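Board notes (copied after class):
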Amino acid sequence: MAKNETARPSFSIRPATADDVDLVFQFILELAKFEKLEHEVTTNRDELKLHLFGEKPPAEVLLAHVGNQCVGFALFFTSFSTFLGKPGLYLEDLYVAPAHRGLGCGRGLLVRLAQLTIERGYGRLEWSVLDWNQKAIDLYLSIGAKPMNEWTVHRLTGDPLAKLASTS
């Protein structure tokens, strides 16, 4: 190592377990604050435990650790591409605590997700990013991700979702 270089701490990635629900919940709250969306968090630890670690979990979580400290997470689920005729992974959330950014943990989580995508025989890994999150966009571009600018995400939640569901 050169004289002025400092060693980057190593990190590890592992699947979350039900014992990690408090960590996952804390990261969700931190992510919501970072994205200025705290007002949209309505979940709680019990709901997360049920849906992430219950009998048929619809999503999975990876945790990033530096030493014994958990510093980030990635929450993802299986999607399906009709054009590819294969499942894929959809990354719902990726978050690394600010004090641990720049160590490669975010990229490491993406690497593990890419590995899972290939190991499972899936056709693609995709996610959304806020337009203003330039650091994340730069990371995604640096790994070869292509923005899907011609696509616009639409969402139904709350009353509009219930109203549509009750339509006959």
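Comment from the instructor: The first strand starts at residue 11 and ends at 15. The longest helix spans residues 105-119.
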